[in-house]
Amino acid sequence: MKMRKKSDLPSKLCEVCGLSFAWRKKWEKDWASVKYCSERCRRARSSASVKNSMVVLAIGSVKHI
Q1: Pairing between strand 20-22 and 61-64?
Q2: What is the reported pTM?
Q3: How confident is the model at residue 59, as a pLDDT?
Q4: How far apart are the two ends of the chain, measured CA to CA in Å?
Q5: Which are the contacts of 64, defined by CB distance < 8 A and separation ≥ 6?
Q6: What domain of life does the native source organism fall in (predicted)?
Q7: Could you tell me which residues come within 8 angstroms of residue 36 by beta carbon, excluding any fewer than 6 positions away?
Q8: Tens-digit pLDDT profile for residues 4-58
């Protein structure tokens, strides 16, 4: 497989934090079912604590603390 730039890879929005994340090799076989950008978001999917632990830095920019 030819190497691609990260900007050329497909991306999705995380259902918990709303951040965009790109395709990864480890998700190759089940990309259609990937919903979360990280283990933290996957674990917190039903909790509001992630939303409370985020700091909005600028318009459209969010950082986990």
Answers
A1: unpaired
A2: 0.59
A3: 53
A4: 37
A5: 17, 40, 50, 53, 54
A6: Bacteria
A7: 14, 15, 16, 42, 45
A8: 787 788 999 999 999 999 999 999 899 999 999 999 999 988 765 545 555 444 4
